[in-house]
Amino acid sequence: MDILAxxxxxxxxxxxxxxLDTIAAVLPIDRRDKLAEILTDQDVExxxxxxxxxxxxxxxxxxxxxxxxxxxxxxxxxxxxxPWPAPEALLxxxxxxxxxxxxxxxxDPEHSVTAEVEQAxxxxxxxxxxxxxxxxxxxxxxxxxSTLTKWRGLDGAFASPALRSALHLAVRAVPxxxxxxxxxxxxxxxxxxxxxxxxxxxxxDLRDRAxxxxxxxxGGRRRSEVAGLRKEQLTVEAPVTGDDGSPLPxxxxxxxxTKNSGAGQDEVVYLTGRPVEALSAWLAAAKIDGGSVFRxxxxxxxxxxxxxxxxxVNDIVKQRVRMAGxxxxxxxxxxxxxxxxxxxxxxxxxxxxxxxxxxxxSVQQASSYYNNATRRSGRASRML
Length: 384
Description:
This protein is mostly helical and about 375 residues long. The protein has two domains: about 10-175, no CATH class; about 190-380, Orthogonal Bundle (hpI Integrase, Chain A). About 50% of the residues lie in helices and about 10% in strands. The chain has helices spanning about 10-20, 30-40, 40-50, 55-80, 90-100, 100-105, 115-125, 135-150, 160-175, 190-195, 205-215, 225, 275-285, 310-325, 335-345, 350-360, 365-375; strands at about 235-240, 245-255, 265-270, 295, 305. A three-stranded antiparallel beta sheet has the order 1-2-3. It has a two-stranded antiparallel sheet with strand order 4-5. A hairpin with a 5-residue loop joins strand 4 and strand 5. The N and C termini lie far apart (about 65 Å).
């Protein structure tokens, strides 16, 4: 019997799957069937309630994904569904199972999560990485666990001194080097090499060229924002006068509420010149007059009516990196976001102006790209 399978009747699973279908647009739907098996009726109702409350799509995806993982882990580790509220002992067990020292595990097999629990999570598709979790991942799952507990009108032990101490000590005992989501930034030089692989007038080349230029020029949009972009979010603006006095096409992108914006706030960024031309060429060739902007293309060249999955955006970036002869492991879709700010710093664009386009809210985070660019080319790094 599958260790992750709760004792649910087939009709109950089907009912939960049907309910999940009603909120499919904001869930990791490729895992809908697995979520329907793992989540309880109350879990599904909580998610539907959060949708109706207008919670951000990305936040809800993270909540749904983490809830599915927590339910799967609890079933594998204890043999029982996740209790609400979770006792302090279970929270401490979660920390111990996910933050551990690989060196100690080599000599002590009982250190960290058991092999049986780990294999059950892998078999269920809930665990893919090797080794302990990143501390930020553990903190996020605990935070989402706490949020879901509060949404049920319950109190948890998430603020207990014992949990805080255990988390602090575990993080210190398992130091991890913080890595960027993309090892290298996709600066304009790198972007030019990627665009050079989109030379033809094929639909795929037109789509990828437009996607790369729009993602970069609009401030380094997140892959979820690129995948979710719709024609209705685009507004044609009056032409902008170029450096040579010629008119350049311009349009605005209404992002709506984003990860960093407040409720009801409509974030707007602008495109000018070549990115607008590339986007217009793709929309015309694909005959897209409404709905999703960036869509899948099958082997016969047919354009899908459905939007690209955010993962597909990353896959396309890596495919173009490979075609450009660059190292695939050094770049990802997030490199477009970091690359935009890095390029802005290299060109001497004021940080505040670049942040208006990237929509970063944290000066500290955005300025790190500027500081790195300045330090690399500054006098302090050329003392000899």
